[in-house]
Amino acid sequence: MKNFIAKTAEIGNGTKLGYNCVIEDNVKIGFGCLIEHNVVIFAGSRIGNNVRVGANTVIGKKPLSSPRSIFKMADDHQPAKIGDQCQIGANVVIYVQSKLGNNCLIADLATIREDVQIGDLNIIGRNVTIENFVKIGNRCKFETNAYITAYSEIADYCFIAPAVATSNDNFMARDNERYKHFKGITMKKGSRLGVGVVVLPGKTIEQDGMVAGGSIVSKDVTAGKIWLGTPAKEFRNVPEKQLLKNNLDKK
């Protein structure tokens, strides 16, 4: 039960490694980190200071590509980067060319694909999947089993409840016309999705917009309004006490 640490890897003072860790060439790990058992950190990855990485986690994984895939894999991906004071759970996979800000919590079994940008102080819950080419702001919360499709943009202070599902292909993998229209969802600042919400491709949840649990979003959701139903329709105003401007001092 020995670790493999490449000679070109750099590990900061006070960082502790569990058993069976693999740390490849040119990896840089900051000071005061805890890298638990069986962690694999691929070449060039950057880990900040005071970061905890749970057992069996993989950082900097390169994507696989099927001959049928719509995504063409580049050969020059930049290394994965993890900011300071992040906590990463067990059995997490973070792909190459992903960037995480500071003080993020990535819970067990989460997957963060390549070309994902995540800001500071985010919570990515258990078994959440963030697909490729997604941008996430600061102080967002993604709860258990949420699925964020590729080409989505999520601003600051957004909330995504458990089992939310999003999509980016109105053609459902048929018709070459679809290649011109791929678009994930857009969530503006402070918008929220309730448990089990489904958001169809290209739809926008405007600032402080809220979608009730179990709804299907087939139109853009207006700012400061609650939408509900299948398909979702405007219902009423978001309560004044729940507006983001009245909650910015809350965690």
Describe the 3D structure:
It is a single chain. By secondary structure, this protein is mainly β. It folds into two domains: 1-63 and 79-116, UDP N-Acetylglucosamine Acyltransferase, domain 1 (3 Solenoid), CATH 2.160.10.10; 133-251, UDP N-Acetylglucosamine Acyltransferase, domain 1, CATH 2.160.10. It contains no helices and 33 strands. The strands form four sheets. It has a twelve-stranded mixed beta sheet with strand order 3-6-9-12-15-18-21-24-27-30-32-33, with no helix packed on it. Strands 2-5-8-11-14-17-20-23-26-29 form a ten-stranded parallel beta sheet, with no helix packed on it. The model has no long low-confidence stretch (mean pLDDT 94).
Which keywords apply here?
single chain; 251 residues; UDP N-Acetylglucosamine Acyltransferase, domain 1; 33 strands
Quick overview:
The chain has strands at 4-5, 10-11, 16-17, 22-23, 28-29, 34-35, 40-41, 46-47, 52-53, 58-61, 81-82, 87-88, 93-95, 99-100, 105-106, 111-112, 117-118, 123-124, 129-130, 135-136, 141-142, 147-148, 153-154, 159-160, 165-166, 186-187, 192-193, 198-199, 204-205, 210-211, 216-217, 225-229, 232-237.
Topology diagram in text:
Layout (H helix, E strand, L loop, with lengths): L3 E2 L4 E2 L4 E2 L4 E2 L4 E2 L4 E2 L4 E2 L4 E2 L4 E2 L4 E4 L19 E2 L4 E2 L4 E3 L3 E2 L4 E2 L4 E2 L4 E2 L4 E2 L4 E2 L4 E2 L4 E2 L4 E2 L4 E2 L4 E2 L4 E2 L19 E2 L4 E2 L4 E2 L4 E2 L4 E2 L4 E2 L7 E5 L2 E6 L14
Parallel strand pairs: 1-4, 2-5, 3-6, 4-7, 5-8, 6-9, 7-10, 8-11, 9-12, 10-13, 11-14, 12-15, 13-16, 14-17, 15-18, 16-19, 17-20, 18-21, 19-22, 20-23, 21-24, 23-26, 24-27, 25-28, 26-29, 27-30, 28-31, 30-32
Antiparallel strand pairs: 32-33
